Model the fold of this input.
Amino acid sequence: MGYKVLLVRENGKPGEVRQIMIRDGELPMSEVKRVGRKYWWIVPLTVVACLSIAMALTVVLPKKYTSKTLVLIDQPTVSADIVKPVVSEASNQRLASMQQEILSRTHLQPIIEKFGLYPEDRGSTHMDDLILRLRDAITVSPLEAMPGTTQEHHMPGFQISVVFNNPQTAQRICSEITTMFMEQNAKYMDDKSKSTTQFVSEHLAEAKQKLDEEDAKLADFKRRYIGSLPEQEQTNLSLLSGMNSQLEASTQALNRLQEDKALNESLLSGQLANWQMATSGNGNPETLEQQLAGLQDQLSTLESRYTPEHPDVIKAKSQIEEIKKQIAAGPRPDSGVTHSRASKIEPPQIQQLRLRIRQADLDIADLSKRQTQIQNHINVLQGKLQSSPAVEQEYKELTRNHQTALEFYNDLLRKQDQSEIAGDLNHQQEGEHFNVLDPPSLPVEASFPKPLFFAGGGLAAGLLLGVGIIYLLAALDKAMHSILDVEYCLKLPVLAAVPILNQKGKGHVRSPGLNKTPELTSTRS
Done:
């Protein structure tokens, strides 16, 4: 370490030596005490001077007054799960954008002109400089939410501070700025709601037009392919099964009619043969017996096909009984005359058989027509079922487009309703809005300069200045105050030291740097 060795003579008395060494800018404690006893008066002097200057500045400097107001951001009273707000950005971002807009030239210049601010500088200073000065006087400070609360990620509010040289003017400016924030927020929320509603309405009209087009396409497709739609496939299958059953029943009925017709035709031919033989005059018991044999053959045929209660079976049996009675009664004397009269008219049995054959022809024609209609209907249903896959594919594409358009339209419709409800909430002050908790204050005391702060600053500055002056004086002192200082300065060892001699009439004076009388010889080489 480097040493700075100085020698001084206190009170001009020779032989009194004091030690002072500054090593790397530091003073030993002994020298601190010596310097302090010597220059103590410097610190009170600098403290008094700096304190006087500070207090004088509090009187000379222009006073500034601060007006403050506290604005809270009230959250919506209706839950976001019920009505989704139209404003999605954070409160601090919205506040920052509003602050930039309100503190712009467009809003601050009317305030300067309205309240007549800076009248002494209006003629010599450009308006932009005055606006910048007013902007620096306005401070907007956001409030921080308490950690752990539900609103931790939302800004609870903000504070507006205005510093000006007149308390009333500061209050008026603060009130004007607060009003601008309130109006700007209300306008922002209203514009946001209107723009959102208008945007959704425009897209809703386009979505409705597209949905109408899809409806028209779907309706036209259903008209063209009615009965072949996928949802009608099961119905077509059921109808086809029913038609097949009807066709089978009609075929069976037609077969029965044709068999009945053939039977009736065979009966008619037999009846006609018997009747013609009877009308030709050759009727005798053998003829009746032949008729009986023919009727018995017919009865056997009918019983093989029908039940005993069938009308044809019952009628054949009654005819057989009638012929048996005629054979048992024998021939009558006037049978020739009666037979000649009866030969002109066909027997009822023959007429009934002819009637049955005609009815059978009519029924067969009707069933054939019905069978043709059923077959045509079956062909149509089969054609619909065969074309069903292609129709289903086209139908799915149409329904998918229609469903997409419908969902998009319904979604936009819900968003439009939510936007309108959110706008109504903002108008009713039920949505997020600014609420002035503390109106702009009228400052009573000046916020600058504060005498207490200036006094503390002057006291601290005086102390630092005094200590610095003392340190500088000690650093500039070139005197040597101890044996070590001499050895370091002269680069020579000290062989002996002469003790301090008392002057006549005065006491012994000892150097504060020496605790005892130095030795006559030194042990250093």
